[in-house]
């Protein structure tokens, strides 16, 4: 029985070696697996996860609300910031009213000084009265300058308060976690009630518009590839289907590099990573059937 099995194995090998056609000239092939670009949805600020609206496997659209963090403290800060803006605006209104009053006082002081100056020139009033009138005019000018400075200070306080309010509102928006791209939820990494640090991951999405197979080719073949060149994929679960693709990336550095490369044969043994991207139009039609990790063979044109 053992000898018969050995003969069958040798016969199968001989048939395969002599009947399976070799690749045509200008075509290279390599095994690989389907991958997709992964995007992490993480919190910008430390805090407690309040709610998550999606489950693993759900399809989401760009901009869709996926989860949000506890926002009670930020909302309280926003209320305080709004009160600060109102207080600064009231101070500005008071400063503007003070300016109107000081302008009226200065106008009266100037007219009284002009009158006193004329009367003093004719000798109708003593010099002390003229000096008193001049001092009143100068005091009114200083009061007006102080009122204008108060208005400028109030305006600056308003701008600071509004900037703080804007920043707090942006922080509130950042507590709502939205999908940066359309895709499928691959992993749910946190649950409501968990406290996460800044940058803590909540979800991982698969960008189904960027699906590709990663293969490795020797230098003699990788060096002849063109970005955008034709490629075809055949997956193990569906070998009867040929999937159109194109070369989207060729690594500039070899994946396996010996310490020293001296001969041409050694250089030819260097393996370069190559990405074969599936056409976006096809991905849009079969988004619900895309599965990462599926293995197959990638074929590329090296002419």
What is the gist of this entry?
By secondary structure, this protein is an alpha+beta fold. It is built from 6 helices and 12 strands.
Would you write up a description of this structure?
- The protein is α+β, with helices and mostly antiparallel strands and 303 residues long.
- The protein is 43% helix and 30% strand.
- It has six helices and twelve strands.
- The strands form two sheets. A six-stranded antiparallel β-barrel has the order 1-8-11-10-9-12. It has a four-stranded antiparallel sheet with strand order 5-4-2-7.
- A hairpin with a 2-residue loop joins β9 and β10.
- About 2% of the residues have low confidence.
Relevant terms:
single chain; elongated; six-stranded antiparallel barrel; 303 residues; four-stranded antiparallel β-sheet; 6 helices; alpha+beta
Draw up the topology in text.
Layout: H1 2-19, E1 27-42, E2 47-52, E3 59-60, E4 65-69, H2 72-121, H3 127-174, E5 176-178, E6 183-188, E7 195-196, E8 201-218, H4 219-222, E9 230-235, E10 238-250, H5 264-268, E11 271-278, H6 280-285, E12 295-301
Antiparallel strand pairs: 1-8, 1-12, 2-4, 2-7, 3-6, 4-5, 6-8, 8-11, 9-10, 9-12, 10-11
Helix pairs in contact: 2-3
Summed up, the helix count is: 6
| Strand ordering within the main sheet | 1-8-11-10-9-12
Radius of gyration over all CA atoms, rounded:
39 Å
Order of helices and strands: HEEEEHHEEEEHEEHEHE
């Amino acid at each position: 029985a053992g000898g018969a099995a050995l003969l069958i194995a040798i016969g199968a090998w001989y048939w395969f070696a002599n009947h399976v056609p070799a690749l045509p000239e200008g075509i290279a092939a390599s095994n690989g697996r389907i991958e997709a670009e992964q995007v992490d949805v993480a919190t910008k600020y430390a805090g407690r996860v309040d709610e998550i609206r999606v489950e693993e496997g759900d399809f989401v659209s760009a901009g869709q609300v996926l989860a949000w963090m506890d926002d009670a403290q930020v909302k309280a800060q926003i209320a305080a910031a709004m009160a600060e803006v109102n207080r600064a605006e009231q101070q500005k209104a008071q400063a503007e009213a003070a300016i109107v009053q000081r302008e009226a006082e200065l106008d009266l002081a100037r007219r009284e000084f002009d009158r006193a100056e004329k009367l003093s020139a004719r000798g109708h009033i003593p010099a002390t009265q003229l000096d008193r009138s001049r001092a009143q005019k100068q005091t009114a000018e200083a009061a007006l300058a102080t009122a204008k400075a108060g208005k400028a200070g109030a305006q600056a306080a308003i701008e600071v308060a509004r900037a703080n309010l804007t920043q707090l509102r942006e922080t509130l928006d950042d507590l709502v976690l939205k999908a940066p791209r359309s895709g499928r939820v691959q992993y749910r990494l946190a649950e409501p009630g968990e406290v996460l640090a800044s940058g803590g991951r909540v979800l991982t999405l698969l960008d189904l518009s960027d699906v590709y197979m990663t293969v490795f080719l020797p230098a003699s073949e990788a060096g002849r590839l063109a970005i955008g060149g034709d490629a075809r994929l055949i997956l193990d679960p569906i070998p009867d289907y040929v999937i159109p693709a194109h070369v989207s990336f060729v690594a500039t550095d070899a994946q396996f590099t010996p310490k020293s490369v001296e001969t041409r044969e050694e250089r030819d043994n260097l393996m370069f990573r190559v990405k074969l991207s599936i056409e976006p139009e096809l991905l849009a039609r079969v988004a619900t059937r895309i599965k990462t990790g599926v293995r197959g063979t990638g074929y590329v044109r090296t002419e």
